[in-house]
Amino acid sequence: MGTYEVPMTDRIGIMERFFIANKSPLREAYSLLGASNPAMLSKRYAEEDQKIMAAQLWDYQNPELITNKIRIVLESVDSSDLSTEENYWRLNILWFWYHHAISSAIWRYFDKKKAREFSQKALFYQPKGHPNRLTRLFYLLLRDDLAAAEKWRKNITIEPEKKSAEWLMTEFKKLKFSDQTD
After folding, report:
1. Which residues lie below 8 Å from residue 24, measured CB to CB, with a gap of 6+?
2. Whose CA is closest to 25, among 90, 121, 122?
3. How would residue 129 be classed by pLDDT, with cut points 50, 70 and 90?
C-alpha cells in the first residue's frame, strides 16, 4: 500500500488555519479549546458550555471553568486586531457567555443587579442578525418592563424559543430577588 499525499490546496488550508491560530491575538483561546480556526473555536466553546450546563455547574464566579477562562481571553483582546471572521465568532462566544451568565445570576445567586448587567452586555455582544430572541426577553424582564416583555414574547414564534419564552414569563412572576440586588 502506498502513501497518501495531501494535495497542495489542502496543505495551504491547513497551514492557514494553523497560522491563524498561532499568530492570532486569540491564540490562548484556540489553545485552550484545541481549535484551529474561528468557527471551530465557537463550536468547541459551545460544546464545553453545554457540558457544563448539562452538569448544572455553569457559574460565572468559578475561575476554573473553561468558559470563564475563554471569556477573559476574548474580552482582553482589542477587536480591531482581529479579522472580520475572528471578531464575528468572538462576539458570538461572548454573547453566549453573557446569555448563560444571566441564568446563573438569576437562579444560582438570585442576583438581579448582576443579571441586569449581564443582559445588557449580552445584547451588546449579540451579533447583528443573530436569531436568539430570549436575551432581549431577559433584558426586559430584569428591568420589570412586563408589558414590553409580553409584547416581545408574542413575537417569539419559533420553537424551542417559544416554549422557553413562555416559561420565562411564568417563572419571572414567581421570582423573589433579595432587596440587596435591586
Report:
1. 30, 82, 86
2. 90
3. confident
List pLDDT tens digits, range 71-81. 999 999 999 99
User: What is the per-residue pLDDT across 19-59, written as a single tens digit (0 to 9) for each?
Assistant: 466 778 999 999 999 998 999 999 999 999 999 999 999 99
- Sequence-ordered list of residues with C-beta below 8 angstroms from that of 157, at least 6 positions apart, any chain: none
The amino acid that residue 62 corresponds to is: N
Return the C-alpha cell found at 83. Answer: 479579522
For residue 124, give Cα distances in angstroms to 92, 95, 112, 135: 11, 8, 18, 10
What is the Cα–Cα distance from 94 to 46, expressed in whole angstroms?
11
